[in-house]
TrEMBL record:
Name recorded for this polypeptide: DUF6760 domain-containing protein
Annotated InterPro entries: DUF6760
Superkingdom per UniProt: Bacteria
Pfam families: DUF6760
Domain DUF6760: 3-52
Length: 52
């Protein structure tokens, strides 16, 4: 696997874990939108962790 494919798997797993979306739904997202979801999930998690 390449670094790009490893990154793709990480993005898919991260979004699937948090949103419970199917693989097909996640792969249908354009890359910039998928990255935006990953970034937003990260920000939400960071805020929640700071509150505890």
């Amino acid at each position: 696997m390449t670094q790009d494919s490893d990154r793709l798997f990480e993005e898919i797993a991260y979004i699937a874990y948090h949103f419970h979306w199917s693989l097909d739904d996640i792969l249908d997202l354009e890359h910039p939108l998928r990255r935006r979801f990953v970034e937003e999930i990260g920000r939400i998690n960071q805020r929640l962790n700071e509150e505890h």
